[in-house]
Design a protein that fits this description.
By secondary structure, the chain is an alpha+beta fold. It is built from twelve helices and twelve strands. The chain folds into two domains: 174 residues, no CATH class; 158 residues, no CATH class.
Length: 364
């Protein structure tokens, strides 16, 4: 009986039902896409850092945290000193410069880096041939529609694209280390040094030795650095994500509140009849809550579908943006949406339940 009343009310007012469902759909899609984009970008950056093949990372003394790229403050001579240590297998230095599009250009000694990372997997073209050559990862090349032989303007110079590689190793844009040092005025300087040890089980012991050897420089195991990076990056994103989620939840709350409040006004006489037939306040409240939860469930399903469609569209149109929708995101969207909808419907439901049946029946 109750379900028939709920179904009839929703179908009798299709425009309001559809608009309420669409508002919940928008709320869910916004939450999922924002959480998915934040976690996707963090995961993609983490994968590239882990893809270096290094066990230890050394940064300049000016590096304030794990997120900022810092400056070229490490002497290149340090590479030979590190490789002279019995536990160190290989040391490779890089230079890093952040561009206006928030992508970083990385200067590498391609031979050392290939030995450490296990080599780059070329999808097109090959390694550096000249001083002003550049290698791009597949996502960046696809975003910029570049292929070997094309020209890319970076570091206030024109570079020739010579290779496109599979992503996931250190950077999206590689240039020769010496070229970048000359352009940036960083001759003999490095932004960070990656260290590979003979026995990964001895990483912690080697880190301790390097901290004694370089007391002013941050020295991390790659595992520690990645954990620190994820924590700091997530902390930086949380405020922004929280604001977006709050806006989305507020939209859903207000739409549900307005829809249910309007429903109460439209169905005043119906409520009076139900109460005169013996319907309790709990029954009236439950009636409106069922309608709300049914609309919310429809919005949740549609919102999840829209979010997954948006994920596919974003990654097709913007290869540099990784959207990773995970199970915990669905749980968050479910919790925020259901709580917001229930709270939004609570006042109109209670208002309906408290109506005097005689006054409600005579309502015009």
């Amino acid at each position: 009986m109750t379900n028939r009343i709920v179904k009839g009310n929703l179908l009798h007012r299709p425009i309001r039902s559809v608009l309420t469902t669409l508002a919940v759909t928008l709320e869910v899609a916004m939450i999922l896409l924002m959480l998915g984009t934040a976690d996707g970008l963090i995961q993609e950056s983490t994968d590239r850092k882990e893809g270096t093949g290094a066990d230890i990372l050394i940064r300049p003394s000016t590096s304030s945290d794990a997120v900022s790229s810092g400056t070229a403050g490490l002497p290149a001579e340090l590479l030979d000193q590190l490789e002279s240590l019995p536990d160190v297998k290989l040391a490779a230095g890089t230079t890093i410069s952040m561009q206006s599009n928030l992508q970083t250009v990385t200067g590498v000694d391609l031979k050392r880096f290939s030995e450490m990372a296990g080599g780059l997997r070329y999808l097109e073209g090959g390694p550096f041939e000249g001083s002003f050559d550049v290698i791009l990862d597949q996502a960046y090349a696809g975003q910029q529609k570049l292929k070997p032989g094309d020209t890319l303007s970076i570091l206030n110079r024109d570079f020739r694209v010579v290779g496109v590689v599979e992503g996931g190793k250190m950077s999206r844009i590689f240039v020769p280390l010496e070229t970048m040092q000359q352009i940036m005025g960083w001759e003999g300087k490095l932004s960070q040094i990656y260290v590979k040890v003979h026995d990964p089980a001895q990483t912690a012991a080697v880190v301790a030795k390097l901290k004694q050897m370089l007391p002013t420089n941050p020295v991390y195991s790659m595992e520690e650095f990645v954990s620190l990076f994820v924590a700091q990056a997530r902390g930086m994103a949380n405020d922004f994500i929280g604001a977006i989620v709050a806006i989305a939840a507020s939209v859903g709350f207000l739409v549900v509140l307005l829809a249910m409040y309007t429903a109460v006004l439209e169905r005043t006489r119906e409520i009076g009849i139900l109460k005169s037939l013996g319907a309790s306040q709990a029954f009236i409240i439950g009636l409106f809550m069922r309608e709300t939860l049914l609309l919310t469930a429809a919005g949740l399903l549609l919102g999840a579908g829209v979010a997954y469609a948006g994920q596919a569209l974003i990654q097709d149109r913007f290869p540099l943006v990784t959207v990773l929708i995970m199970r915990q995101h669905l749980v968050w969207a479910l919790a925020v949406t259901v709580i917001g909808s229930v709270v939004g419907a609570l006042y109109p439901s209670v208002m309906a339940a408290r109506q005097d049946p005689i006054a409600a029946i005579s309502y015009d």
